[in-house]
Design goal:
This protein has six helices and 20 strands. The chain is α+β, with helices and mostly antiparallel strands. Strand 18 and strand 19 form a beta hairpin.
Length: 339
């Protein structure tokens, strides 16, 4: 088996084989770019090696590789999924909130959902049906890890299902109340939604605009429009808050919004999952999914030491709020008086 080569992969007990470009492999897993209909890229597939019968190069594969290369598929970037041990890729899928197809030993069955927990040898997940509707019944679905043959990630089917779900239930330009794990609720007008993030215009004191909040999807317990939210939404429209321009922030993955905020030199309130108070400051550097952060005290004084935080632990980020604007104004005033 060689990386960057096209292989036909046979699965034990299955009639159908899998065609894909090998991207990485270990004793436990094989990660491929999935190829369907001869030359169509269909996401990434993470296969447990225990279920692989054999991998082989077939006649015509070299020519197919040239066609795939011409279409830019061979050099397409791949997700940095750790595959050194049995549990690391499952935890990665869980941490990144990926919606995946679960294919099990029974070739006729597969499931679609998002992994919520990994406990010993059991994968616990929440399912989405073929109409793009998430299961809201109490409790999580379970599968033994050993029975899972492979996961499809970013497949055309899953992406279409999610797109349909979002189109049918588009929350954009509507007011919602968000319940966040470990923090107070956030009221905001939804500006953009992705699998990783929700961007909102924050509303405080019922009707007042208070900057932007970028909320990590995995830390949202629920969001809804109960009570008098529809009435508040109508008032907010009359106040022109809906017309406030929205920054064009890339939300496709975990890292991109942080890179954008760093490039814009935005002053932030960063809310960490394990802290009682937010960290105020600016992002100085991003490296290996960690944020190097220059913090300011609540009295408007910059600290000398930087703070480092795994970006995966960030629940949400605020900027351009009244509090931030006031703190920056005070800091500027003090600087002028001291000069």
């Amino acid at each position: 088996m060689e990386n960057k080569k096209l292989y036909t992969i046979s699965i034990k007990g299955w009639e159908e084989s899998i065609l894909g470009v090998i991207e990485s492999f270990s004793k436990k897993w094989v990660l491929i770019k999935r190829i369907s209909n001869m030359y169509t890229f269909d996401g990434f597939t993470l296969i447990q090696r225990r279920h692989i019968k054999f991998c082989r190069r077939e006649e015509g594969n070299k020519f197919k590789e040239k066609v795939l290369a011409a279409n830019g598929i061979m050099n397409m970037p791949i997700p940095e999924i750790p595959i050194d041990d049995r549990f690391s890729p499952i935890q990665w899928l869980c941490d990144h909130g990926k919606v995946v197809e679960f294919h099990i030993e029974d070739e006729s069955k597969f499931y679609v959902g998002r992994i919520e927990k990994v406990q010993m040898n059991v994968v616990r997940w929440i399912s989405i049906d073929n109409r793009g509707i998430w299961d809201t019944t109490p409790g999580l679905c379970t599968l033994y890890l050993k029975t899972i043959v492979y996961f499809d990630i970013n497949s055309n089917y899953v992406d279409s299902l999610i797109a349909y779900n979002q189109a049918e239930r588009s929350p954009k330009d509507r007011l919602y109340l968000f319940e966040i794990k470990g923090w107070e609720d956030i009221l905001g007008v939804v500006c953009a939604v992705s699998a990783e993030w929700v961007l909102v215009k924050q509303i405080i004191n019922d009707f007042r605009y208070n900057g932007f909040v970028l909320i990590r999807s995995k830390y949202i317990i629920q969001w809804g429009r109960d009570g008098n939210i529809p009435f508040r939404e109508e008032v907010i429209k009359k106040l022109g808050i809906m017309d406030i321009s929205v920054p064009d922030i890339p939300l496709n993955d975990l890292t991109s919004p942080f890179l954008w905020l760093a490039q814009q030199k935005e002053f932030l309130s960063l809310f960490h999952k394990k802290e009682l108070d937010p960290y105020l400051g600016e992002i100085m550097k991003i490296k290996k999914h960690k944020i190097e952060y220059h913090t300011m005290t609540p009295k408007g004084v910059w600290k000398s030491a930087y703070w480092t935080c795994p970006m995966n632990d960030v629940c949400f980020v605020e900027w351009k709020t009244d509090y931030i604007n006031s703190l920056l104004a005070y800091n500027k005033f003090c600087s002028l008086n001291n000069s």
